[in-house]
């Protein structure tokens, strides 16, 4: 049987982030565990998604079943895209830049991946993750900005790079350096020096464990004006070792006292 519903679903405007779920996956009850309590009109919704829907429903009921079918598709999608087959499909879309490109200047249009901040539906909308700067962004289009983040989940983008580690982009030390008429802004320059020191300390700590962490700039000849800069990557690594609230990269005021003296 032709997969009419799913084909139409993934090709309709606003659904560009979704891949087509295999029929085999959808018809295996094991994969749908727990969703019958999550989705109203569950059986009708499933029939609609699998193209066996056969009910003479009035417009009102039909509309509600269609809404449920969309919700069901989304929830199954979050599970499907962490399977081998689903990962491969999403990888193709990532390579085609279906999820857009990172807006950060130094990421040079690196492709993004969709992600959820929560796995529970109706909590937050879909966000986009850039593996190069390891930051998250809001979708540009309002059609995408309203999609439930739980349809992609919190783990998919990380699983993708665990399964395809070679695709993880090389980290860069390049970052924007604020200047006023050519002179470095003092506080920013002091913060940059502190971050440089932290990065070097982290690199030598890693070296102590036998891990050699390299940046793009360590292997390439850098010819642009920003080449003496720090990176965002170390901040991310550093942050992951600190308790929440000690966000050194974003809020100077939030940093623990004594951890960073940027004013000397
Ligand atoms: Zn980026």
From TrEMBL:
InterPro entries for the chain: Casein_kin_II_reg-sub_N, Casein_kinase_II_beta-like, Casein_kinase_II_reg-sub
Short name of any one Pfam family annotated for the protein: CK_II_beta
GO cellular component terms attached to this protein's record: cytoplasm; protein kinase CK2 complex; UTP-C complex
Region (Disordered): 217-264
Source superkingdom: Eukaryota
MF term (GO), any: protein kinase regulator activity
Acidic residues composition-biased segments: 218-236
GO BP term, pick one: regulation of transcription by RNA polymerase III
Complexes and interactors: Tetramer composed of two alpha chains, one beta chain and one beta' chain.
Entry's family note: Belongs to the casein kinase 2 subunit beta family.
Annotated function: Regulatory subunit of casein kinase II/CK2. As part of the kinase complex regulates the basal catalytic activity of the alpha subunit a constitutively active serine/threonine-protein kinase that phosphorylates a large number of substrates containing acidic residues C-terminal to the phosphorylated serine or threonine.
Name of the protein: Casein kinase II subunit beta
Species this chain originates from: Penicillium capsulatum
């Amino acid at each position: 049987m032709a997969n009419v519903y799913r084909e139409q679903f993934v090709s309709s405007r606003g659904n560009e982030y979704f891949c087509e779920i295999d029929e085999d996956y959808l018809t295996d009850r094991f994969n749908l565990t727990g969703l019958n309590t999550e989705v109203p009109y569950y059986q009708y919704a499933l029939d609609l998604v699998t193209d066996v829907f056969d009910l003479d429903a009035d417009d009102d009921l039909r509309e509600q079943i269609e809404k449920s079918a969309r919700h069901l598709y989304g929830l199954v999608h979050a599970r499907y895209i962490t399977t081998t087959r689903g990962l491969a499909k999403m990888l193709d879309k990532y390579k085609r830049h279906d999820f857009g490109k990172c807006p950060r200047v130094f990421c040079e249009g690196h492709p993004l991946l969709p992600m959820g901040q929560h796995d529970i539906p109706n909590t937050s909308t879909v966000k986009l993750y850039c593996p190069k700067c390891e930051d998250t962004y809001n979708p540009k289009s309002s059609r995408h900005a309203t999609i439930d983040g739980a349809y992609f989940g919190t783990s998919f983008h990380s699983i993708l790079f665990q399964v395809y580690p070679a695709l993880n982009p090389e980290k860069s030390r390049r970052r924007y350096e604020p200047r006023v008429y050519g002179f470095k802004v003092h506080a920013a320059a002091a913060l940059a020096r502190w971050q440089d020191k932290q990065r070097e300390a982290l690199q030598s700590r890693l070296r102590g464990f036998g891990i050699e962490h390299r940046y793009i700039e360590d292997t390439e000849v850098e010819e642009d004006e920003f080449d003496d800069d720090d990176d965002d990557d170390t901040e991310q690594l550093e942050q992951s070792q600190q308790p929440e609230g000690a966000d050194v990269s974003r809020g100077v005021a939030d940093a623990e006292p004594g951890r960073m003296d940027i004013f000397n």
